[in-house]
């Protein structure tokens, strides 16, 4: 239980969220993750046990609930002058 946002001191409430979870080179998206979310800045707070379960899902050979494609872009720097 966090209670207050660490960053902006906003109110934090329990929600089910979608998390982009990076595991090495893999990126998986996990839905319905129980988290506490700041109502002001959107910062997500996850409990250690929740992280462990996400790792288990990401590493495991469980059949994904749904497939999606993730396109990866490399940020170009410097940003071209517009
Ligand atoms: Zn916040």
Bound molecules: zinc ion
> How many strand elements?
3
Secondary-structure element order, N to C: EEEH
Let me know the average pLDDT.
87
- Main β sheet profile: 3 strands, antiparallel
Quote the beta fraction: 25-35%
* Spatial ordering of strands, largest sheet: 1-2-3
Helix content: 10-25%
CATH topology: Ubiquitin-like (UB roll)
Q: Which structural class matches the secondary elements?
A: alpha+beta
Q: Name the CATH class.
A: Alpha Beta
Give the CA-CA distance, first to last residue. 45 Å
Total count of helical runs of at least 4 residues: 1
What would you say the CATH architecture is?
Answer: Roll
Shape: flat
Number of domains: 1
Radius of gyration: 16 Å
Q: Which stretches are poorly predicted, pLDDT < 50 over at least 5 residues?
A: none
Description:
Helix content is 15%, strand content 33%. The mean pLDDT is 87. The chain has a single domain (1-70), classed as Ubiquitin-like (UB roll) (Roll), CATH 3.10.20. It starts with 11 loop residues before the first strand and ends in a 23-residue tail after the last helix. Strands 1-2-3 form a three-stranded antiparallel sheet, with helices on one face. The chain has one helix and three strands, in the order E-E-E-H. With 82 residues, it is α+β, with helices and mostly antiparallel strands. The chain has one helix at 48-59; strands spanning 12-23, 26-38, 44-45. Bound molecules: zinc ion. Zinc ion binds at residues 5, 7-8, 10, 38, 40-41, 43.
